Amino acid sequence: MTIAPAPVALFSHDNHSPLLDLLRPHLPRSLPLYSTLQTPGQPIAVYATFPPGAEAGGEEGRRRIPWLILADLGNQLRFFCSYEAKTALSEAERSEGEELVGRALRLYLLEHHGGRDRISIGAIPDIWTSCIERFFNTKPFSNSEIHYLLPHDVAESLPVNGSTKGGIVLPGGVVETQGREEDVAEILSTSEVPHPPAYIATRLPYTTVLRSVDSSTASSTDSTAVSTPSSILAHCTTHRDGSIGTLHVSSSHRQRGLGALVLRTRISRMFSPAEAPRHVEPEWRSAAAFCYVHADNLASNALMRKVGMRKSDWEVWWARVKLPLEA
């Protein structure tokens, strides 16, 4: 006799702190969703298969195992299923997890498509790719590995030679600044992902740009003595889910270590008080700096190793889903 799957229900969660507490023991596997929930200043709809207040269990409203949490970033869903924390799943657990993941995501998109004609499901762990294909009739693409750096692995500060009117002078006579409005076009032109210009504009405070500076003035301690030029040597951005992307080094300035320098500088800024989300306990703000790197991108994988990042032992995928779904 075939046993029908247990019904799936979704509950809205406005308070993300209890969910972060629930996800924290499962780092780094829960990192994509954990980091997403820390995004400051961004409206994110968050739902779970248990009601608010049931995160810690208890006789009233005890959550069912397995459980799932999902976040809606507007153009993309992120989720975490508790079975992902296990290093190995039995056949029964995998089947139960696939039913929960597929049915919960489908239920959410049926009820909350919001007039959208499509959406992405991102950072899908490799154990759920087959159920995403089965429930949504779409094949996940772009298998990537997560490279991450935990807080205690990050140096508290970077060597600084002096300040300029527009930024900080780093070793090698390079000026580091935030992104500027005039940088948006160049960032978009070098990105493999077609981001909308308005999105990149919102990420400029979380973008690190390296620019050239005259060596004769690079050591000046007078903050008004050096003006920062507009030409970009290298840049990278922390996306609203906390991942670092759009990393690019100008073709005429490669083989100088600028890729590692811009990445290390961006990581340092992520762990600074200025960028840390205020609603998370200090020791858990920016639980890790991380990047999604395609498995076949040898150069980027080598760069991650160079800066000391750890590589995940699992892959994540993306899927595009057409909306509205048929009930």
Percent strand: 25-35%
Cα shape: elongated
Mean pLDDT: 83
Order of helices and strands: EHHEEEHEHEEEEHHEEEHEHE
Q: Give the low-pLDDT segments.
A: 58-62, 156-165, 215-226
Structure description:
24% of the residues lie in helices and 25% in strands. The chain has two domains: 11-144 and 315-322, Aminopeptidase, CATH 3.40.630; 155-270, Aminopeptidase. A hairpin with a 5-residue loop joins strand 11 and strand 12. The chain is an alpha+beta fold. Helix 3 packs across helix 4. The two termini are 26 Å apart. The protein contains eight helices and 14 strands. It has helices at residues 17-23, 31-37, 91-111, 129-136, 184-189, 197-202, 258-270, 298-306, and strands spanning 11-12, 45-48, 68-72, 76-81, 118-125, 141-149, 162-163, 168-170, 174-178, 207-212, 232-238, 244-249, 289-294, 310-322. An eight-stranded mixed β-sheet has the order 1-2-3-4-5-14-6-13, sandwiched between helices. A six-stranded antiparallel β-sheet has the order 7-8-9-10-11-12, covered by helices on one side.
